[in-house]
Description:
Blueprint: H1 3-12, H2 14-47, E1 48-54, H3 59-70, E2 78-86, E3 92-100, E4 103-109, E5 112-126, E6 131-141, H4 146-162, E7 166-167, E8 169-173, E9 176-179, E10 184-185, H5 198-210, H6 213-219, E11 224-230, H7 237-248, E12 251-255, H8 264-272, E13 278-282, H9 296-302, H10 310-319, E14 326-332, E15 350-353, H11 359-369, H12 375-388, H13 395-404, H14 410-415
Parallel strand pairs: 8-12, 11-14, 11-15, 12-13, 13-14
Antiparallel strand pairs: 1-6, 2-3, 4-5, 5-6, 7-10, 8-9
Helix pairs in contact: 3-4, 8-10, 11-12, 11-13
Bound molecules: adenosine-5'-triphosphate.
Amino acid sequence: xxxxxxLSTLSDNPYFGAGFGLFxxxxxxxxxxKSFQASLILMRRHYMITLEVPCxxxxxxxxxxxxxxxxxxxTQHLSVETSFEQKETGHVKTKYDFIPSVxxxxxxxxxxxxxxxxxxxxxxxxxxxxxxxxxxxLTAFGRDKSLYFNILEEARQMALKQHxxxxxxxxxxxxxxxxxxxxxxxxxxxxxxxxEGISDRILTDCQEFISNPSWYTERGIPxxxxxxxxxxxxxxxxxxxxxxxxxxxxxISVLNLSERGLSDDRLNHLLSVAPQQTIILLEDIDAAFxxxxxxxxxxxxxxxxxxxxxxxxxxxxxxxxxxEARIVFMxxxxxxxxxxxxxxxxxVDLKEYIGYCSAYQIELMFxxxxxxxxxxxxxxxxxxxxxxxxxxxxxxQIQGFxxxxxxxxxEVVLKNCEMIWKL
Length: 423
Ligand SMILES: Nc1ncnc2c1ncn2[C@@H]1O[C@H](COP(=O)(O)OP(=O)(O)OP(=O)(O)O)[C@@H](O)[C@H]1O
């Protein structure tokens, strides 16, 4: 029997025919599935756009907030984020924000449906923050990438708007900057009364610096500026820096150089990843290198811990260079304790003494507290009275004194000037 004859007898066999038919069906289904998958991949590649935002990216928080506003209304699967909000009256209000939970959500942006997938890796931690690693992936039909650009920009604007009129504070935690406390209402710069011309000098210098990056790049000078405010306590150094940050629309990033475990490397890293548009504040810079080892107990407490060295700090300050305007403010009560290397030009470009009140400051503070019609005359009298005691007085003392007599007439205040030193 030839092979051809053998095959023809097989084709007459009903069992073989059925088996062959089944095989054909299976192969056909597999082929269909494969081509479906291939066309899906092809469609994804050419007709869909995807955006992946990992939790380490700056826009991640903005995007979550944006989704809270836009998307959370369209999905039923939410997770809660509780925060505390301080009202201007000082009341603290609890605020619940619902954000789309981990999983898949769909919502419409303009006329496009977007699939949002929020995933959380159970086994991977974001080592900086110690939280599970998360990713948000947006997928939409189309090829226009500007869709995502618009979403991110809208999210950024929304985040900025939330902080409009507020000053943010950051502190260095580990190798990250973390927001510290609630955003504070901006303090008007005029509310910090410094001696004649000082505030204008600092403000103009900062503004000129910020608006002139090309001056620095053209001359190959690092784009940074250092300021030192020195003087006795309670005269407004910290208050002025806070008010200045508000005026410039900057945040404040506070670095505590005496902090345990802050090494040269960490300091360097923190300075290089500082938030944008921020004032880096090194308070009580004189205390950073002396007070730590005053007593044997302190010495042993700090043994084995990393810490910032003086040369490390100088290197870090010199290395603070970026395309961003980098403003560093230092404060101290004791200028004479500072090493000249720390405050040489280039590290500190402008030094200002913020001292006890002059007659000019006393008058101005009085007029701000008692803005009545006789204010100018009374303020002059008040300043003369205070000066006649020939004693030092700080703005904090004057503020405390005014607060004590806040329900009294200016006349009573004028009569009780000596109480300033007794409160
Ligand atoms: N020049 C000023 N104008 C208005 N208020 C002031 C002024 N100086 C100080 N105050 C008030 O006194 C308080 C303490 O001021 P602040 O902390 O800014 O002083 P400081 O010079 O930074 O002191 P320290 O050296 O102890 O840090 C604040 O409540 C502030 O409002």
